[in-house]
Amino acid sequence: MNHDPFSWGRPSDETYGAYNTQIAQAPSFPKMNTQQPIVTGTSVISMKYDNGVIIAADNLGSYGLLLRFTDVERLIPVGQNTVVGISGDISDMQHLEQLLDELETENQYDNSSADGAEALKPSYVFEYLATVMYNRRSKMNPLWNALIVAGLEDGKPFLRYVNLLGVTYSSPTLATGFGAHLALPLLRRVVDTEADVGKTTLETAEKTMLESMKVLYYRDARSSRKFSLAIIDNDQGLVIKKGLKVEGMAWEFAKNIRGYGTQKV
Amino acid sequence: MNTIASEYSSEKQSTPIEHSFNPYSDNGGTILGIAGEDFAVLAGDTRHTTDYSINSRYEPKVFDCGDGIVMSANGFAADGEALLKRFKNSMKWYHFDNNDKKLSMNAAARNIQHLLYGKRFFPYYVHTIIAGLDEDGKGSVFSFDPVGSYEREQCRAGGAAASLIMPFLDNQVNFKNQYVPGTDGKEKRPVKFLTVDEVIKLVRDAFTSATERHIHVGDGLEILIVTKDGVRKEYYPLKRD
Amino acid sequence: MAGLSFDNFQRNQFLASKSQGQPKATSTGTTIVGLKFDGGVLIAADTRSTQGPIVADKNCAKLHRIAPRIWCAGAGTAADTEAVTQLIGSNIELHSLSTGRQPRVVTTLQMLKQHLFKYQGHLGAYLIVAGVDPTGAHLMSVQAHGSTDVGFYLSLGSGSLAAMAVLESQWREGLSREEAIELAADAIEAGIWNDLGSGSNVDVCVMEVGKDAAYMRNYRTPNVREPKQQSYKFARGTTAVLKESIINVCDVEEQEVDVSA
User: Fold this and answer.
1) Rounded Cα gap, residues B27 and B54, in angstroms
2) Residues of chain B positioned with their CB less than 8 A from the CB of C237
3) What is the per-residue pLDDT across A125-167, written as a single tens digit (0 to 9) for each?
4) How buried is residue C2: exposed, middle or buried, by Cβ count under 10 Å (0-12/13-18/19+)?
5) Annotated catalytic, C30?
6) Out of A121, A232, B198, C235, which residue is the most buried by the measure of CB atoms under 10 Å away?
7) How does pLDDT run across C89-127, given as a tens digit for each residue?
8) Are C29 and C57 in contact (CB under 8 A)?
9) Which of B3, B49, B214 is closest, CB to CB, to C7?
10) pTM, whole model, 2 decimals?
11) Which ipTM value was assigned to this complex?
């Protein structure tokens, strides 16, 4: 008796010989579409404030240890009041961009009312992306990304995360990858609860985001100095600032560090 | 220095380096359902985690599905949400097909078994609990394993801190290991139905204690209470460290 | 023959694969920091110790004294940080007695790294070493494999990224003692709130040039538990007494003694 549960209910090899996988063109091993990320983008960070949301990501496309592409745009506007920030595999990101483009086009065709009453809202865009991500993981062929959908919906800030597993969650501050470890603690010092959102101005929020991008550039080896930052504001609408640079770094003290222990010169 | 020759020396590490995609993750959190005489509660913490990170301090995982049924699927959050969505959808079709007939707890439980067992070989990685009132108006709690085995129970804890909370429940809800004083262990302490207030006290103490000792539990406690008057929500903050 | 013996390596690998694996040590999934300020140096730590996802100790002490004015914050395997710290502490004292000089931070660091290097990373000790000696205030770190680092501000442990984020954005040259204490405590708090391996309270130890070290156990306690909703005291007799036996460990004899004499 073969006690391995794998062979339960199967014709026994002793009686029938080894199972012929050629029957029904069955492969000897399940089909694997599993890949690995090749060109990658690092963290996306975001936060809510009293009148909207801010989201930022740098412009680097890393090829392993190589800083391969230096002007990759990872903040994608969708419709009038949504921005999707994407980290992870860049080719999968570009596939998602295409899907979002098609989604927007279809929405334009279907949209019968001129006042945009049926226009895409952030929650629609999110639901679509989350479904795509979960379905792809369930086919064991994931899109290797973590995304943040940021936007304004009925005047209120919208922020939600989804990743390659289809895991989703919301919070007044969100970050992917390294940003979850380095930037979130700083963002949460300003906006810790939903109640803090109403007490935080655009000025404070933007300052906090720039500070977080600086810390990420200091400490994340796969980050770049150049980044983009998008603001979706009730008054200003959707504004994407591109080609920003990390400013105000402190390196003065570094020259006073000598060696790694006993060295004095 | 020498290596002792043994039968192990011929053992070789022959497992190839695996680099396969793991479709599951653990999003922490814990849930707890208790049935009373004419009510039932289902509680869950609101912390959402992966590894050592807190993804969200408020991500509800206990939901009112309608027909006085509350549900939570705790474990891998993406599967939990997918299962919940499928159950809500199934409920909608039940109403369409049966002239808006109310879905009973028994029927809901059997339906969830089928949803879970349908993915027997690629399971929903969740511990599921539903709570509500049965057809006699008595409180009822059903709990499921990831592939659909289920049972009606008086109380059940699920998720990360289930093993911390369950023994406490056995002792405080079903009075296990308690005897009537003066009977020398001859007479067990008789079980009785607890009131809503007593149950909420137990739930709050269970969650504050689990928060103290389990790193994946904390931030907030949301309790859904089902009575003949409908579903009510209560929220209590938990420690955030 | 001197050196380490790897005789049992293969056997241990085999046993580990056959059984539930090797015994797990209590790890201090931790946040620790150290930073320099005008006239001294300080270290700080959280107080949570864990075994997997379970909190083993809610208020453990991760700040260890190596010499009266040289202290050390430890992350990694609790037993290793404790043992290595005590061993080097003893040797430092003997060395100080033998030379008739005050112990130095560089000596401590050199002894720690040589000890840890010898064990090739098998001692899971990750330490931030700080102190004041006749040559001034010093701040350094040692990793389990024996590599060392010096800096004006350092963080280690599972919460090191959260703490470092705070340090990177707030640290500057010329901090006062009080500013430095608050910054260190804030950095530890970032670990406490954002890293699940860290929690409970903040311990601080300040070392100023020419002064005794000031060890401030539980400098901040932002995680006091709220009172429980009810008492769980059982009525006497709830637990059955099945058998009773009194064991006389020794014979008791009473004897009258005249005290007035």
Assistant:
1) 9
2) 179-183
3) 999 999 999 999 999 999 999 999 999 999 999 999 999 999 9
4) exposed
5) yes
6) A232
7) 999 999 999 999 999 999 999 999 999 999 999 999 999
8) no
9) B3
10) 0.90
11) 0.92
